[in-house]
Records
---
Amino acid sequence: MKNKYYNEWELDQAINLMEKNPYEAVKKLENYLKKYRKDYNAFAFYINSLVNIKEIDKAKKVLASIENKVVNDSKFINNNRRYKSFKKKILYNKLQLLMFEEKYQEFYDLYNENISMSEELDIGHIMFWCKIKLDKIKKNPRDNYNYLYRQLIEYNTDDLIDHINNHTAFAYDNDINSEYNMFTADFPLLKILNEIKKYIPSDRYLFPGFIDDRYTFKYDGCGKINSKNADYFRVICIHNSDKIITMYPVVNCEEFDYVDLNYMLEKQDMKIKRKSRIDRFNDRYKK
């Protein structure tokens, strides 16, 4: 018998689309919610998808609307499992919106007011960042922490380069059949880092999480994913900054708002093919 309140298969199809085409995912979720208006948990995914594409005002309106509807739906509230799941997802939405707007004190307060659920979200590193911004954390040497925490405490470009180099073919002895995602051995990392400074920060990012702006770039043959060629790579920056946390090759990004860096490949090919004046003279007058 068809469930009139929700359809897990159809919802999963829309959610999974967020990684390939976030704008189409929003449309799919909107069509889904027209049919299943009482799938309140699906509204939480919809809010997240709106924040992801930076439709912040609309996300806030949907959040306020769905909370008002749930308050008056005693049947749903009495369904402990689904209601608990809904509250946790809505808390995630609220915390995400606060971090997008860099409202650190409000984030800190809301997180602690709902400490049990907040800890279930597994976003301790976000709270760590919030404490840094609020000057609520003891200053310790950055080397005492793992990579991400070190970069949040005090950003260091050399640390970034080391981090990325650990995910290149060099790190796996040029094993291109490795199951790991990696950049190719000849990926010009330093040149790429210098070039993408022209495009970061900008408004061409997605915001899927809490403090990470996600940019997409095209650079043919930049890496491997499970031994398959990747022609795109993703750059993750601290929100509203040019501080890159990580980069990695990706596929299936045709529908994203990406920056095409293949002009760098063309310049490289031209440099390789360009002959010296002596070579051109010899070519012209050789017998």
---
Amino acid sequence: MRKGLFLITGLLALGGCSLDDGLQPTRSGFSGTIRFKNAWPAQTDQVLVVAATRFPPSAIADIVMSDPLPLHQDSVDYTLFTTPQLFAAVGVVWKEKNQPWDVTNLIGLYFDSDNLFNPGKVHVRNRDEMVENIDIEADLSKAKRKVTSGIEGMLRTRGEWPPASQSLLMVASKPILPFGLLDISLGQPIEAPFDSSRFFLNLQPGTYRLVGALLIEKGADIGLSSVVGLYYKKAGDLFPGAITIASDTTIIRGVEIHIDFNKRPFAG
């Protein structure tokens, strides 16, 4: 099993380092410094930089991964070699011992503005360009252990889908107003459009004061206005319903979220 994992990791690394024009090594890519904060979890196996050509990524072909970074450091310099292309997001991913890689287990993202919901883009324009200063703060308290807990239920939509709709993601946040993407637990993309769809969102134990659905639209920035539906305990409630995950195996069933595309909860 571990041998197979190393093989997969090696193939992914090779995917970011190609040969051009007769054995010319890839010289392009980007580099920066990762600054870690909070304590290193005891179950840390590896940490690396991941770049995605689309965010959130939906397939292994959407990502390029760096070599594993040195562990238990306050900061680490890195370089990721890749063929010229535009990356929609660059982040730091944490891996738990004896668990497979999960590129959604993000502990840091690169931002090029004060909008902490919208990852900064990185454009490697030619084979000789090394884009510098792609620096990332990685918060080790955001690392997610392997658990089977979460919520499951049904999404129901009403009204016309926006023309640029690509997918919906289930989201959950412990603060009722998250400060950025790293405060949010993200589910797997559900391809748009649909009238209704079942979902399961894997969550760490804790109380989540905001549970809802986030719309990904082509060419649109991600923000609170991207949230198109929220969970309420009963119709007419003023505030979203909180959900408590008591243990690593707790599953809350029967969660229904109604999405009205004409009434976004956080209209921009």
